[in-house]
Design brief:
The protein is α/β, with parallel strands linked by helices. It has six helices and five strands, in the order E-H-H-E-H-E-H-E-H-H-E. It has a five-stranded parallel sheet, with helices on both faces. It is globular and about 50 Å long. The relative contact order is 0.22.
Length: about 140
Amino acid sequence: MFKTIVLGLDGSDNARAAITPAVELARQNGGRIVIAHVDERIAAKGDMPSLRADEDEIKASIAGEAERINADGVDATVENAEVVLGGPAHSIAEIAESAAADVIVIGTTGRSRVGGLVLGGVAGRLLHIAKRPVLVVPSSPV
């Protein structure tokens, strides 16, 4: 059922909480994982630097996660995207469409339920725009 799983990672602990469920889904279904990472850029005069000063380290960490998943017997690749405006949700949804994903797995921001409803976030936005099922994994047990 879940042959292609898109796993959204941004380098945060909350996002990493989604790795284990994504790997288990892939393992149970003989599937593969496409890790989606979006480098958010700042529009600046003559340049578009990354929003995060440690973006290179984040990308290296995500590549390391893909290597660990592959070493654990599940096929994993990384798809990187860049976005200047609009946040990463649209890019993750586009990666999922391009990969013909059966599901998108993403962690929460760790906000309270009320804060999450008011502030939204990538997971909340994906629930509204993605044309694929979205599995949102809480950062800690509920």
